[in-house]
């Protein structure tokens, strides 16, 4: 980014800057000095470009004749401008996918300019607005080349220096905005599991089962919480049998506002958990709470349709009326070769196999991708059987932690770290990189195995090798230039290795 030399870098009193952007404490009596928004039509874009030309061509001499480049012709480029109450453009900034290539979630900000005499805080407000817009566009790597005299401004706004660079013959510094979307989601959905379940495990291990008359008490069950090799898996092997049990609950708010979809998803998430273990589903048990019979009927209608589509029987369950909406399902499956989530090793290739069909579920854009409700039963069953047929070293169903967070769980259980090649991740056209790596994707399996292992035979799903397990911990995102940015810096669950 290049900041106008005719205006001083703002003194970042965060309170004053925010009030300058949103209005001060007397907003009800006074209009704010300026507002930020996307350039409205050709006139505002032209005004922004005039400010750029005056600053970077005429004042600073960084360019000869003009400072226009390919990003000005890219229809994906977003121009944000600052306007005074009369509508005069006081400054602007642009942001766009890096290099004008495919949008893989790597964007740059550039041509930041403020008019001479612009109100205090315009530059900082434009940078903040650019960061917010980038994250709204699903960006996971956001960078700018900054003139050295504006290094302090960007540091105070939370940007981190990467390395010195030269732009238009002048020294700059490449700076990166930390984006914690993946780490925040992993922490919110999974970080509490380790402490909670460790305490549960310890409590169970401290209480041996009583013995019969004349016999000593039994030792604590070694298979508690899945048993050795299966701690933290999507399903749990039932000791002494070929049964796999899985259990998932649906968010009560979703059961309340979208009961039929909640019923469908209750089946979906549980059969996916069995599929990740390589198990074939044999039956479901549901526990349903609903305010009345009509609401319960809608939930059960969705559940019944999904069970029929997947060819799995509803064996029984429990229903209670006159209570807040709630739904959980337990699924049973069979396999004599369960696939662990923690069977990976450093050097194993990571593969994502995902159904890219369908689209965002109405009301859940950016959060839930519906790839299953339109599929034929044969297609659904082909996807469910893929892990069992391929028998990779490790597998996990992508769920609430998203693709990157789930990879962190697989790596943690395997005693490894992981690197994900962003450009190689199979992704539907209708999803940004940020949304796709953090959403619930319908059907998606992460597997780890020796390099060159056969792909999963998953019918309509798309698969690709898109990373590897490494020494260490956490998940890094690797970009086409070889740079690796941190997505998850530590263990996701704290449950340790399997």
How would you briefly describe this protein structure?
With 498 residues, the protein is an alpha+beta fold.
Report on the structure:
The chain has helices spanning 14-22, 41-59, 122-136, 151-156, 181-190, 193-205, 252-257, 259-276, 293-310, 377-384, 386-390, 402-413, 433-438, and strands spanning 35-38, 78-83, 89-97, 106-114, 141-147, 160-167, 170-177, 236-237, 243-250, 280-290, 314-321, 326-334, 349-354, 359-360, 369-370, 394-397, 417-421, 444-449, 462-470, 475-478, 484-488. It has 498 residues and is α+β, with helices and mostly antiparallel strands. The two termini are 46 Å apart.
Task: Provide key terms for this protein.
elongated, single chain, seven-stranded mixed β-sheet
Layout of secondary structure:
Blueprint: H1 14-22, E1 35-38, H2 41-59, E2 78-83, E3 89-97, E4 106-114, H3 122-136, E5 141-147, H4 151-156, E6 160-167, E7 170-177, H5 181-190, H6 193-205, E8 236-237, E9 243-250, H7 252-257, H8 259-276, E10 280-290, H9 293-310, E11 314-321, E12 326-334, E13 349-354, E14 359-360, E15 369-370, H10 377-384, H11 386-390, E16 394-397, H12 402-413, E17 417-421, H13 433-438, E18 444-449, E19 462-470, E20 475-478, E21 484-488
Parallel strand pairs: 4-5, 10-11, 17-20
Antiparallel strand pairs: 1-2, 2-3, 3-4, 5-7, 6-7, 8-9, 9-12, 10-12, 13-18, 13-19, 14-15, 16-18, 17-19, 20-21
Helix pairs in contact: 5-12, 8-9
